[in-house]
Amino acid sequence: MTDITITCAPCCWGVDDVSNPHLPPWEKVLDEAQGAGFGGLELGPYGFMPLAVDTVSKALADRQLSIVAGTIFDDLVSLDNRDNLIRQTHEICALITALPKPTQHKGQTVDAPYLTVMDWGHDERDYAAGHPETAPRLSPAAWQGMMDNLRAIATIAQEEYGVRAVIHPHAGGYIEFADEIAQLVQDIPADVAGLCLDTGHIAYSKMDPVETLRQYWDRVDYIHFKDINPSVYDEVMGERIRFFDACAKGVMCPIGTGQLNYPEIRALLTELNYGGFITIEQERDPRNSDGVLEDLTASRQFLRDVGFK
């Protein structure tokens, strides 16, 4: 196995919507990320951690952590949202490039930190998460508008900050299913942006994680891991339910306790010589955060047991 650092993300504590009144303090997230044995974490959604470089740098250094990626988790479709997306790109990239730089790994395609970019904020797709056969698709014009927004984000990140944008297909957004990923890689060249593929989102959206990773391997710069509770998944697939409401029901579970085959995923990454960062995510309702440290510690130990040191 090439050199890999396992990291985590604030969504493991239920941090997805910064307006949620139940979010934990950002310092607690850092404390528990360190306590569970992780080598770093993502910045989380825009506005969760402060934009104060000195404050965040000291907090990370005190815990021997680094920020491996910033996140844009927003409406990528609307052209009216372009100014907001560009502002986030500037502010996030300015922060993550001013923080201590994560270690470069043997086999890593591009340097961290990354800018992970996900589409979000559309009720008609949120309720259709995981249902490729019934989910509405964008019109060609609306799709091209989203591609224009992505190109603008990725170009600013790269040319002004040296940050690689990685596009993350996400359940409940307009880049989720196999046909949309295929179109995305046609429309956004490799020199503009890479992919961040998430094993759990791939499986949630009716694709095979190993096959999808292999298919798009020449575009994968960064990887997310999660696992799915099969009984809860079967239940929520029979309901009209938003993606994060499914997460609040426990559809995401500690890695190794769900339906994904992580020994097979490890074998693939070994075969393909992946080096760099892998971020664990287990989305939940922040009101159910008492078990975060236990779940993350169990996920981290399972990955050690299957060869991710």
Automatic annotation (TrEMBL):
What positions does the domain Xylose isomerase-like TIM barrel occupy? 30-296
Q: Which domain of life is it from?
A: Bacteria
Q: Which Pfam families match?
A: AP_endonuc_2
What is this protein identified as? Sugar phosphate isomerase/epimerase family protein
> What InterPro entries does the record point to?
IolE/XylAMocC-like (IPR050312), Xyl_isomerase-like_sf (IPR036237), Xyl_isomerase-like_TIM-brl (IPR013022)
Organism encoding this protein: Rhodanobacter aciditrophus
Q: Which GO terms describe its molecular function?
A: isomerase activity
Keyword list (alphabetical) reads: Isomerase
